[in-house]
Predict the structure.
Amino acid sequence: MSTTPESVLADLKNRKFAPVYFLQGEETFYIDQIAEYIENHVLSEAEKGFNQTIVYGRDANVSTILNHARRFPMMAERQVVIVREAQTITDLNREVGSKMLLDYLNNPVPSTVLVFCHKNKTLDKRKALGKAVDKLTISVTSKKIYDDKLPGWIESHVHQKGFRISHKAVRMLADAIGSNLERVANEIDKILINLKDGEEINEILVQQYVGISKDYNVFELQKAMAAKDIIKANKIVSYFEANIRKNPVIPIIAVLFSFYSKLLLALSQRDKSANGIATALKMNSFFAKDYIMASSKYSMPQVVSGIRQLRKADLQSKGVDSSGAVADGQILRELVFRLLH
């Protein structure tokens, strides 16, 4: 049965276990989270010695894995078999291996919890095994999170841990780290170990524990661009130039490209209220304020021209259409000048 990571974790915490879990997809955060919970909580420490087996796909074929799964637990109610890097199982997608696994899925050993961690790709659902996994196992398919969903994910993740987080701290984390959920979660955990239950993560804590400046970051640059604040924008660019290794130009261009692309969409809306813009751009109304401000500062032709300049700078930063080597800091400074004038 295809389900969500949250639903699976809720059942596991209530000690509702299934015979087979198939965790697959591009977003590895949930695959690791579920597998780690099963590894740490299904069996007691005393039971793990005889009843917990971890194998790696590159070192095993389907037959070997199923031999482990068909054993009966010793002095325990169940055993756990976790297959890491299951996408590398040599015969998983071959006829013989696929048929063996299909046969097992139709008649699994009820005292075994068998977990497949199939990372960065999914089974072909046009084939029998891909279809059977969705029907006969607890199946979770994790897709990469879109950038516009990341702030909501960060807020939800922090709230689940019993803490609060300010909107500005959310944006700083989202813009600086991007959609690598494992890295985002690790940085959040780094902050939380220094807080008491219920306290709020703010921009000062993000600066202190994650190393993102609360005044000189791509979020603040975006705000300066939205307001056409030339002095503030140039101060931030100067900071980036002096610390270019910690502030590489390509991700900065990507964030600005996303901003100007959304600004183009915002300018085309009839309803330019915070709620109207937020709905159109699929974001929290707090973050819509930048687009409302920018809508009064930029015309449609200026934004179209800005997107053209961003594309040009992106190619230049990657060595394309460039007459010679240009320093990243210079590319950024020239780009910001063209966007603001």
Notes: The first strand starts at residue 20 and ends at 25. The chain has a mean pLDDT of 92. The radius of gyration is 25 Å.
